[in-house]
Amino acid sequence: MIEPWKNPRSKFLWFRKRVPERFVALMGRREVKFSLGIKDPEEAQLRCVEENLKIERMWQDHAAGRPPGRELDYRQVVALAGEFYKETVEKHHRNPGKAADWESSIARDRTLSQLRSFPLTPAQHRRFLFGEQVRAFLESKDLTLAPTSPSCFCGRFTTMRSRPPGS
Question: Based on the domain organization, do 127 and 88 belong to the same domain?
Fold first, then answer.
């Protein structure tokens, strides 16, 4: 079982995992490590398990080789991302939660993705954050995208997500 790592240069516990040789090209490095942003060992243990599951699923999807799927042009990707954004906003319309929570989530994502030591490329980071939601959305539309399209789709969605609705 994976356990949180105490980085000597940080007050927070970290996720740390060796990348199997066959996935080094996919990940672009031999090790995945990032701050969990918490100090509580029990909560860090749970987050490690969750993050490990996300990474293992990403590797499994890559190893299994998804069905070829449909290649979308840029305009189609933007339209589909807009539809996903609209559905996401509508889901939270009646009970959106605190604006500060949404803003801090967006700011945290932006800050993490700009760190020099961030373990994932921006496309991998977006896929890591929104992969499950995107997969469920595409399944509801009975769509399978070609391997390059989901990254573009997530990129367009996060651009929309970083702007207030209606702008």
Answer: yes
Confirm whether 69 is domain-assigned. no
Residue count (the chain): 167
- Count structural domains, the chain: 2
Q: What is the mean pLDDT of the chain?
A: 77
Q: Which of 21-30, 93-102, 113-122, 124-133 has the lowest mean pLDDT?
A: 113-122
Task: Rounding to the nearest 10 degrees, give the CA dihedral for residues 152, 20, 50, 121.
Answer: -30
> Are 86 and 58 in the same domain?
no
Evaluate whether 133 touches 64 at the Cβ level (below 8 Å). no
- What tokens appear for 134 in the block? 């995107």
**Of the listed ranges 35-39, 41-45, 96-100, 113-117, the one predicted with least confidence:** 113-117
| DSSP secondary structure of 98-153 | -HHHHHHHHHHHHHHHH-TT-SS-HHHHHHHHHHHHHHHHHHHTT--B-TTHHHHH
Give the range of the structural domain holding residue 112, as residue numbers without chain letter. 74-161
This prediction has a pTM of 0.44
